[in-house]
Amino acid sequence: MKVAVFLAGAALMGLEVSAFRIVGRVFGTALRETTTVIAVFMAAMSIGYWGGGRIGDRWPSGRTLATALLGASLATAIVPWLDRIVSLRISESGTAISFHALIASLSLFFVPTLLLSAVSPIAIRLVATQTAHSGSTAGSISALSTIGSIAGTIATAFVLLDWLQSINRTVLVVAMTLFLTTLIVLAGEAERRRRPVVFTMIAAALALVAYAGTASLNARAPHNALQNVLFERDSPYHHIMVREHARGRFRVLQFELTAVQSSMLVRDPAGPGLAYIDVFHLAKVIRPEAKSLLMIGLGGGTAVKQFLRLYPDVTIDAVDIDPMVVEVARKFFMLPESNRLRVTVSDGRVFLKGTTKSWDVIFVDSYTSNRYGSTIPPHLVTREFFVEAKRHLNPSGIVHFHCATNIEAPMAQAVYRTLRDVFPTVIAVPGTGYTELFATTALEPISREMLIARTRPLPWADLRVRSAAMTDRPPLPSAPLLTDDYAPVDTLLRGK
Known about the structure:
Blueprint: H1 2-27, H2 31-58, H3 62-77, H4 79-91, H5 100-117, H6 119-127, H7 134-164, H8 167-193, H9 196-218, H10 223-226, E1 229-234, E2 239-245, E3 250-255, E4 259-265, H11 282-286, E5 292-296, H12 302-310, E6 315-320, H13 323-332, E7 341-345, H14 348-353, E8 359-364, E9 368-370, E10 373-375, H15 383-391, E11 393-403, H16 410-422, E12 425-430, E13 435-440, H17 448-455, H18 461-468, H19 489-493
Parallel strand pairs: 5-6, 5-8, 6-7, 8-11
Antiparallel strand pairs: 1-2, 2-3, 3-4, 9-10, 11-13, 12-13
């Protein structure tokens, strides 16, 4: 009984950790989506605790407990299959976008969470045979369930996901754990009732159903071959896909199913990529003598490969928080091994705090995706972060911030204002759907005329166009200053 309570608690939190990733890969990981998942789990748990107590009082037996566990295991096992059916349909429906994550969370996780929550009150009813000790029994069962929840949280986030490299397989392991727990309960009930043969047959049948169900659900969908998917895995931070298009001529890196992070011409890995990468070279135009670069955010490594090819005097530190992104960049996007390139797996801000090194240029391009489009972790857009970055710049150094919105958008305006609060000089170079912000410690910035003159002989026509659009006008008065205390990235991405 106690084993069942512990494992049910572990499965419940393992499912909740998985839910954040499953909902996030279609609907994003903005604050509202995360809050929605928590709210659905809490609502289901409340009803499950209440219902479990009522059912436990009416049918106090091990079979009742086994039924709840069996139902939870089956409801959990179909989550990956159900996700493939409903999530994209919800995202493409006419329903208000604010309700998408709520509908998906209810569809996928309400039933298994409700059934798992019923386990503890049923177990308390079975164990608490004496009213005088019912309080201590309830406390012990609740504590055991909570300890299981802690173990499930840690095991899912730090072990299972890294080991299985798939959120779907992680969910299926949770389902299998519940099947095994059901067998444990049934075995105990069979021994108590002295009907081991019958319950052994039932247990064997359940095990067979569990194996067949998880094997079929774990099979890869045949769409991979049709869509030229070379790689698809869940990392601790992203759902990562690598695809080829145009009969293998182009290769793209995608996060969360839809967001394209990098593009590569297969026959020329260090050649053109996404259009905005061209504008990265303006850092070298603004400060031609720059030789040491830090790139926070690697993706497919397009900028890194271009800088290594075009500037033989440049050395690069590249930092990315996701080890799988680094692996994919090397295996599928031909990120080279070079004595001029050092790649570190770390959070960009943590990396800066832990080093005494300084650079001529620091690039910040650390994006993922949510329902509002491309987004960046809030702690990489604040005044405190830019102060830290400034501390690691050489004299007249540059922080180049890629902002994935138009210059007039609230997000770009807020980052622009925050940079101007830290640096004496900030220039904005607008593009189509993005803005490149160059903040420098130099008191006399490069003029538009000089920038255009320096870009004229370069091979990128887009650089000349963007140089002509350069502006150093002040941000809008309504633009907020982003700080560690308040950096409403998701709200700004919604245009508010």
